[in-house]
Design a protein that fits this description.
Elements lengths: L3 E5 L4 H17 L3 E6 L13 H22 L5 E6 L3 H6 L5 E9 L11 H9 L4 E7 L2 E2 L7 E4 L8 H14 L3 E7 L9 H10 L2 H19 L5 E7 L2 H7 L6 E6 L2 E3 L2 E3 L2 H9 L4 E5 L7
Parallel strand pairs: 1-2, 1-4, 2-3, 4-5, 7-8, 7-10, 8-9, 10-13
Antiparallel strand pairs: 5-6, 5-13, 11-12
Helix pairs in contact: 1-2, 5-7, 6-7, 8-9
Amino acid sequence: MSREIVAGVDGSPESLAAADWAAREAVHRDLPLRLVHAWRWEPLDLPLVQDPTDQLKAAREVLSTAGARVTERFPDVALATELIGDTPVAALLGTLGRAELLALGSRGQGAIAGFLLGSYGQQVIASATVPVVAVRSRDGEPVEPPAGEVLVGQHGTPEDSAAALGFAFAAAAARGASVRAVRAWSLPPLFAFSPGSLALADEAGGLEPYERKALREALAPWRERFPEVAVTEHVELGSAGQVLLSGAGSAQLLVVGRRARRGAIGPRIGSVAHAALHLAPCPVAVVPQEVDAQD
């Protein structure tokens, strides 16, 4: 099945920046790009455009403007546009069957805005089956260092972070960039110690060497698969969110995993992804892992 990059646009400067970033990503990966805009007529309470025909015309102009901008800036990208008559969340999630990734606009160092506002952005990120990239913008241009590492967080077992590591290595290979893999760790509480865990730590030479060994083992298959990608291993005592954000200033892309938890009030994306989306100055890719049971 053919693959493509998808970007959501709504006419805002943030979404146009996301379209630019997605077009550049399509060049890196030699994939086509699809720009998507969701529109469904609903009567407005304000004395604005009430006629469905006028609203439809405005929706088409959003796609036309975004498409013309992409074509001018990236003439070699195979571009398609699609107007979907549905709500934003449903429209975006419905496009992901063939998508390599989805790009959305994000406003500065704050909550996701642009194409989706408030809880809508979290719903898409928590439910998407492909990586979602939040693109920072400034004056309608994507905030993306022209060079720099692909920064990725690793946690748990090699299987726990395989999806995020795979995405990071593929992104770095496409860009000719290096990867910095970060594993944060903290001292366990006394009640968490057990003879078995202490034995494993002793075999590795202590807690920090144990964490370094765990990171090295998680990276091994990806080093073998992408031998051209230079890798820096970074192990640091601290919270995962803080350690990742401390290195995000010079990164061209930050990659975090997402274990969507289905709670009583809807899906949640996890504290590390939440911190990265709100505070990282560079584009942030949230990569889905396995889905946990409802809690």
